[in-house]
Fold Sugar ABC transporter permease.
Amino acid sequence: MEKVSSLRTKRRRRSGSSWIGYLFIGPWLICFLAFTAIPFVASFFLSFTEYNMLSAPKFIGLDNYIEMFTNDNLFSTSMGVTFQFVFVSIPLRLIFALLVAMILNRKSKAVPFYRVVYYLPSILGGSVAVSVMWKYCFSKTGVVNTFLNALGIPSDISWISNKDTALWCIILLFIWQFGSPMLIFLSGLKQIPQSYYEAAVVDGAGPVKKFFKITLPLLSPIIFFNLVMQMIGGFMVFSQAMIITDGGPMNRTLVYALYLYRQSFKYYKMGYGCAMAWILLVIIGFFTALVFKSSSAWVFYENELFEGKKKKKRRKEK
């Protein structure tokens, strides 16, 4: 009887502790269900319907997807603009972030101050106020034209209204927000042992060789992480294009997320917008899987890198 009673008390204690755990994760679980899981399933269902948010959704099967790929010219336009934005801005942003991280990866009392200064654009860059400021900077009477005129270069064009330069204005704003990948690169650089560089100097390696033989291979896992995260963010760019150019001129800055927003909340075609959202999810998933698949060829970890070098030396000795 005593053993049975002790087992019951243990079970009660376990059940009590498990309820405490559920109580702690309860707020997160409720938010996950309310704002992620249920909308995720609902959007998938609505993508097969005609729904204007004012009446009950009407099931139409694959009509939204067929319309998207056959009759909607702006769909292909927005897709092309988004691909151009991603494939240009992401490499430039990562290169610039790595360059600044390498500059800041040195011992100096002013380095913490510069880290904060360079990270500020990432905090402020996505805000409405900065996008409005950027819009006025590249306008006909903005700071850019004033600076060029001061240098003796006559310029009176509106950079955001020119079809050849409007998208580049948004790309520059996106690159300017390099603080987050820069800090991740900086933390990765701090993890590379200084002894590797000292050994390379003894072997007669210069700065370029040290970068390509030590820094870049050991930093490849960080590059991989930053590439995936920045690529996902690039495909979902929205606020900058909406505030600065609103998709113009001549739809040259009509990014995919902005066109999705128009279909859903301007034209009240919520079913069509949900279908567009799922196409975007598939595209992001495809390119993310492609990066993961290719990572085995260019991502190196410290143990793998030096084991490979040892194997090469053994082959040469043989």
